[in-house]
Write a structure and sequence with these properties.
The chain contains eleven helices and ten strands. By secondary structure, the protein is an alpha/beta fold. The protein has two domains: about 150 residues, Rossmann fold, CATH 3.40.50; about 110 residues, Rossmann fold (3-Layer(aba) Sandwich), CATH 3.40.50.1860. It has a six-stranded parallel sheet, with helices on both faces. A four-stranded parallel sheet has the order 6-5-7-8, with helices on both faces. α1 crosses α10 and α2 packs across α3.
Amino acid sequence: MADARQAPVGVFDSGVGGLTVLAEIQQLLPRESLLYVSDGGHIPYGEKSPAFIRERCVAVAEFFIEQGAKALVMACNTATVAAMADLRERYPRWPLVGMEPAVKPAAAATRSGVVGVLATTGTLQSAKFAALLDRFASDIHVVTQPCPGLVELIEAGDLQAPALEQLLRNYVEPLLAAGCDTLILGCTHYPFLRPLLSQMIPADVSLIDTGAAVARQLQRLLQQDHLLAEGPAAVTRFWTSANAEHFRNILPALWQNSYIVQSFQR
């Protein structure tokens, strides 16, 4: 009988953004074998309907179950908002971890009392985000900035592209002008922009994302269910619903470890 602890963990995003979360998981839990699906053929999720996103999330979840995954990490803020409640209902016994914008730590970190949020339109318009603001941001001023176009440029793989830098600058400057001293990176793609952001913002402006917190939550759930792997980890396996050759070409810049890439046909 197979040891359930050695089963892999499935990680999912609309594109390459979830690699920022995957890296945090690998750093915290190096013995875990990891599977990753990039649904890049349907990107960006931020502009899609909740019903469409739920349909994609169920397709990926079913695939991970077929692959024997012992847990699922939804490394996408937009997908978490649209589909997590539905997935929890469908798979009540499966450890599921989602994303949420880091409003609580940002509220604790700000000195000026003004926090900026860079996120997709879908995340900012969600009831879940509104509830987070009600719960943790009642004493601070939150300035939200939808960022259409950023995800697609990051997916292209050139993180120093002039077009990417200009678009990012257009989104960040109003937040700085509003007095934000803390910026929430409210999409898993955006931590890839830290090097660019560091050139645009003063040194005393904090950048906050939730990748490390998601890895810790996965660790807690696996521990609770006695599912922590004892290693060694298998080679990380990737699937993409976009062009697999393009994914292979950009992956070395985003993922420093060994891997296998296959096409995802669902």
